[in-house]
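Researcher: I'm preparing a figure for a lab meeting and need a structural model of a single chain. I don't have an experimental structure, so a prediction will have to do for now. The sequence is pasted below. Please return the structure as tokens so I can convert it later.
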Amino acid sequence: MRAHDSQPVNEFSYFAGADIKFDLLFELMENYKIFLSPRLTPRKLAFAMRANLKEMERSLFDNFGLSLSEIISIYRIQHSRNLLTAGIDFYDIAQFSGFRSMRRFRNCLDSFL
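Model: Understood. Here is the structure written out token by token.
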């Protein structure tokens, strides 16, 4: 099994359809797996969606209680959990899940688990 074949579980799917931008966000995350790019930032994601970053952040916080950065991290953590259960080496998981470094990966693990 290759690292990028793993499917993340969408913990936000019950909000899909609530807003067209949310549908686009979840499509980009789930179908295109853009969260796997270590270069992805909330600003770049909002730009790709042709959305105002501040408005997107406010809308996400109002609907989910999370920032765009946290949503990206959640998708990455879920993907890393899938890789871990697939037997991928722990030190490779950070790279295959879109984290810039092992330190960032560990910080996200501490924050979300």
